[in-house]
Amino acid sequence: MNSTNLFKIALRALANNKLRAFLTMLGIIIGVASVIAMLAIGQGSKKSIQQQISEMGSNMIMIHPGGDMRGGVRQDASSMQTLKIEDYEALKTQCSLLANISPNVSSSGQLIAGANNYPSSVSGVSIDYLGIRQQKISEGEMFTEEDIRTSAKVCVIGKTIAENLFPNGINPIGKTIRCNQIPFRVIGVLESKGYNSMGQDQDEVVLAPYTTVMKRLLAQTYIGSIYASAQSEDLTEDAVNEIGEVLRKQHKLMPTDTEDFNIRTQQELSSMLNTTTDLMTTLLACIAGISLVVGGIGIMNIMYVSVTERTREIGLRMSVGARGVDILSQFLIEAVLISITGGLIGVIFGCGASYIIKYVAHWPIYIQPWSVLLSFAVCTVTGIFFGWYPAKKAADLDPIEAIRYE
User: Fold this and answer.
1) What span, in angstroms and rounded, lies between the C-alpha atoms of 374 and 39?
2) What are phi and psi of 307, to 5 degrees?
3) DSSP state of 199
4) Strand, coil or helix: 129
5) Which residues contact 159 (CB under 8 A, 6 or more apart)?
6) Which DSSP state fits 84?
7) Which of 23, 138, 251, 298 is deepest in the core (most CB within 10 A)?
């Protein structure tokens, strides 16, 4: 019996039991749709995190003071004073792989503008800070090197600060805000960047010359941290090694001495978050994949029922010359048709459900072609795997006993 006839017989058998065939497909449809939707959510989250890290500066390098032992007690890194202005200047002049570099000092307090106030902090930075964090000025201008040299009391604020201190559309440019009784004249407003992947508001920021914050707000000579950006993402690792060499030389550390500074990159954060999202995506896909297994068991169950119902038909076919392999192929084709058709419908429902989630729940969604192909391939293999045993049982029937079956 040729494959065309077997295919027609399988289609006719499914057409005679449309509702049962559809209900059998339902497990496959739900399984495939769930896998595609879950993978789309997981990959969308991963893409969103990567995009936000890129907006923060994928080649950004952060240098912080290192912890130290004093009197046998491990000191907190935030209390250390191992980073100096001289370190920043040495890195700026000696590191050839850095595109931008800025010191960072921060003073928290209540910001006051007229009758409005808002709890936040003022970050002391250099002009390069905007390039490192990939931020731009939307109104006004950035402070200058002259402002840094003279410790000018000027600042640039983010959208959140502007909306809270200058509500009702008041233009903040030229206005004065106070932090710990020190007045700052607003000379610029940053473009809005929204929340980052860690849930932090990137618009809740006040930037001022680092010399101003150090002298007028904190009265200190050391800096809290140094931010830098490599010339390209590929050069980040080399830039980190270069920074380490310069700082060890600056701090007069011997080869056996422990570094009194820590260097971190966005790549470490990206790798950590990607590992987490990949784990969650795999977990979601495995949970959704259970539906495929249940759908496969449904196929096996229905095929068993079909073999039992059509035992006399199988005996008649064998008595007129049908071989065992023909009977096996017939029932296997039925199982595969159920799984493939269910898979195709599941792909449509899965993609549709993903876009519904995107526009209704506003979750980041990204459907990768491989996830669709993988789901479709798995449902096909499921149909073959769970359909083979009932088909083999039908092929092994004795023709005489099958014809006598009631």
Assistant:
1) 11
2) -65, -40
3) S
4) helix
5) 189, 190, 191, 192, 203
6) B
7) 298
User: Using an 8 Å Cβ cutoff, are 64 and 76 in contact?
Assistant: no
pLDDT in tens, 227-269: 998 888 778 889 999 999 999 999 888 888 888 888 888 776 6
The one-letter code for the residue type at 123 is S
> Are residues 335 and 383 in contact, defined by beta-carbon separation less than 8 angstroms?
yes
Percent of the chain with pLDDT over 70: 89
Question: Cα(281)–Cα(272) distance, rounded to whole angstroms?
Answer: 14
Question: Sign (positive/negative) of CA torsion 76, 49, 51, 58?
Answer: positive
Torsion of CA 395, 398, 401, 402, to 10 degrees: 20
Strands (E), 114-249: 116-125, 137-140, 154-157, 176-179, 182-190, 206-209, 225-230
Burial environment of residue 196 by CB neighbours within 10 A (0 to 12, 13 to 18, 19 or more): middle
What is each CA distance from 79 to 75, 82, 105, in whole angstroms? 7, 9, 13
Give the contacts of 2 (CB within 8 A, at least 6 positions apart).
Answer: none
In whole angstroms, give the CA distance from residue 389 to residue 139: 72
pLDDT in tens, 188-212: 999 988 776 566 788 899 999 999 9
**Structural contact between residues 155 and 123, judged by C-beta atoms closer than 8 angstroms:** no
φ and ψ at 260, to 5 degrees?
-100, 30
Centroid of chain to Cα 210: 34
d(CA 155, CA 243): 29
Position 272 confidence tier, pLDDT thresholds 50, 70, 90:
confident
Q: Identify which of 223, 174, 178 has the alpha carbon closest to the alpha carbon of residue 62.
A: 223
The two three-digit tokens of residue 341, written as one number = 């058709």
Start-to-end Cα distance in the chain: 26
Instruction: Write out the H or E segment, with its range, that includes residue 195.
Output: none
